[in-house]
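Researcher: Here's my situation. A collaborator sent me these components and asked whether they could plausibly form a single complex. I don't have experimental data yet, so a predicted model of the whole assembly would be a useful starting point for our discussion.
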Amino acid sequence: MVKSAKILSEIEQNYIEKLVNKGTRIDERSLDSYRDITIKTNVIEKANGSADCTLGNTRVVVGVKLELGTPFPDMPDEGVVTVNAELAPIASPFFESGPPTEVGIELARVVDRGVRQSKAVDTKKLCILKGEKVWIAFVDIYALDHDGNLIDASALAAIAALLTAKMPKVEITKDKEIRLLEETTPLPVVDRPIAVTLAKLNGAIIVDPCLKEEFAMRGRITFTFTEEGNLCALQKGGNGTFLQSEISDAFDKARNIASQLRQFLPK
Amino acid sequence: MVIRESLEPAIFSIMFPRTAIDIYIEIVQADGGTRCVGIIAASLALADAGVPLKDLVAGCAAGKIDGTLVLDLNDTEDKCGEADLPLAFMPRTKEITLLQMDGSLSPEEFKDATNLAITGCEEIYEMQRETLKKKYAENRDEINSEKTTTKEGD
């Protein structure tokens, strides 16, 4: 099979760089504007929670599945939230089926860190029997269409899916058996973290890079902010470098954008 | 992967077409800061191997424990603290090549923490330079002493 090359032609690279220097982009956006965002929730009925997020042509579906399991020994009264990402070939000619690649692992880890460090899910409330039974929430990211910035789209979809997830009520019998009831209660989500990715392209900082810009960029940085406006996760990616002044500019920009993006989320 | 991305910007890879550089980092004992120490050692090893570098890469983490910003967390501090911010830095060009964070930091704390980590990196950078210089000084002394012994032998 012919593998599609992950490189841009020189002419396209130059074109993208020139546009950025003029303050515009290949899709005519300004340097700090996002592509159109849509979020639909409860798109997968069988899942406990789900969301379908589009960011321009990028599209991601996230499903939340709750399972009963045993807690970690060092946190006996806390449930577990874990994030996984699947980059299936349907999303992009660069993705192949098989074990997760570096891109997939990084995506899952950046989203996971955002959800975990913001303490978005009150894991204490996922505890059923201390030290024995807790809910484990599997947050599975499925990329359907990759046109750049999978991180932000996935982070939005993940928190939207968690916000709308329902947890079955349980009954504990005398002999410590757990019975699931028909009735459900919302998953205890207490924060709405937002990930904002910025790319460094020819010395300029742009937000929400599309696929071609991702090929043209040197470095990328993802900030995740909590509702309070505190930074809860950060990851620099790509083999570019940032000056300290660029980081602090990007930080301020990202913090502003995060509160705007939060409006797309369900309450 | 983050270590690769933090070292790659320092290497003049353009001088090595069709070449791969393999770097193996072995953590002998983990007590926090393994990522940064790995970077410090790897960049020194690259220099020792004679790979042309833009600069040595120094790494150091800043963090927050009980609301106080601290430098270089150990394992317990990392697990029980409120934030961990590893950073790698090339002091000559002032470029940041690795930056990660988890925990919770306000905008002011973030700025202070980055500054703190950079100060740490600069300190480590001096030690890295000294170590490299010392190696060549030792080589020089060895060669000089060999010269004198051969002379005496004559």
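Model: Some features of this prediction you could bring to your collaborator: DSSP finds five helices and 13 strands in chain A. Residues 10-264 of chain A form a domain with the Ribosomal Protein S5; domain 2 fold (CATH 3.30.230.70).
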